From TrEMBL:
Pfam families (UniProt xref): Mob1_phocein
List of residues binding Zn(2+): C90, C95, H168, H173
Domain of life: Eukaryota
Keywords for this protein: Metal-binding, Zinc
Protein name per UniProt: Uncharacterized protein
Stored Gene3D superfamilies: MOB kinase activator
Positions of the UniProt region annotated as Disordered: 220-240
InterPro entries: MOB_kinase_act_fam, MOB_kinase_act_sf
Species whose genome carries this gene: Echinococcus canadensis
Biased composition (Low complexity): 229-240
Length: 296
């Protein structure tokens, strides 16, 4: 190939498996396109998907907001692979609700009223569709070169929702989760990512990851240890943190229903459900014996 030959960095129709993405690596500073960050992230993943630290290390001088945004886009694209893997095993009959451990049930916000009875596979599709809608929104993310702080505040909300897909797969479809994780290390990378950039509270991370000090949830009293008193203290603290942040949770202008994704933890003694009203948490009474709070 002569030095003057243009390198086409895309897979044309009919590309063979062994030739897929087989083009020379690029140096970040020499990439002349608004998709430079996406291309470098994907290049690092192809090079060694298990080298999480290298993949998540931003190039010198790179805008951190754009870096986080592009990584989250990439996570959502790759998570579609897990959704496809689950669809023949995670059915409305086998998984009538979106749950992780026995302590967590997630309400689907893609309905006019947040819905508990949305099957897990539908919840997965709704969550990925909502995330794609937001991350491709010209209203919130009109540029992939610079991003407003007000738009960056929405990334945490997306992270919390899409992480529930990992949680459900780990606790209810372990063999499929392990199969997918072995080929992608996606949950490991996502966990390190959200901890590195403070996009999720550590106590909301339910899938154990080596080196991240996250243990598997096994007891009926929750993953943070202790009984109902510990759960009550944890919940109160989480509610206060969300309340004080004032973070907007809307996903799309045309999908405002997605702005109130809810999860609640089952315990024995309390009856409260967290609801989002004008970015504030207001407890309401419920007949079920639950202690609830919003996971934004």
């Amino acid at each position: 190939m002569s030095s003057g030959t243009e390198i086409i960095r895309r897979n044309r129709p009919g590309t063979k498996r062994e030739e897929w993405c087989q083009w020379p690596d690029e140096v970040f500073d020499e990439v002349d396109t608004v998709l430079a960050v996406q291309q470098i992230i994907q290049q690092m993943i192809r090079k060694d998907f298990k080298n999480v630290d290298a993949i998540l290390t931003e190039p010198q001088g790179q805008d951190l907001g754009v870096w986080k945004y592009e990584h989250l886009r990439q996570f959502c694209m790759e998570l579609n692979g897990l959704a496809v893997l689950l669809q023949d095993h995670c059915t409305p009959e086998t998984c009538a609700q979106m749950t992780a451990t026995e302590q967590w049930i997630f309400l689907c916000a893609a309905h006019k009223t947040p819905k508990e009875a949305c099957p897990a596979i539908n919840y997965t599709r709704h969550t990925l569709d909502g995330a794609a809608c937001l991350l491709n929104s010209s209203k919130y993310f009109p540029s992939r070169v610079t991003i407003r702080d007000s738009s960056l505040a929405k990334l945490s909300s997306v992270c919390r929702r899409v992480y529930r897909i990992f949680s459900h797969a780990y606790y209810h479809h372990r063999s499929l989760f392990d199969q997918f994780e072995e080929k992608t290390a996606l949950c490991q990378r996502f966990t390190v990512f959200v901890l590195k950039y403070n996009l999720m509270n550590k106590q909301n991370l339910l899938v154990p990851i080596a080196g991240a000090d996250i243990e598997e949830v096994t007891s009926a009293d929750g993953g943070s240890g202790g009984g109902s008193e510990a759960s009550e203290a944890t919940t109160t603290s989480d509610t206060a943190n969300v309340n004080s942040s004032g973070m907007s949770t809307g996903l799309c202008a045309d999908q405002a229903n997605l702005s109130s994704g809810v999860g609640y933890r089952v315990t024995r003694q309390f009856s409260m459900i967290g609801c989002l009203l004008s970015a504030a948490i207001r407890p309401i009474q419920d007949e079920r014996s639950t202690l609830g709070f919003l996971l934004i």
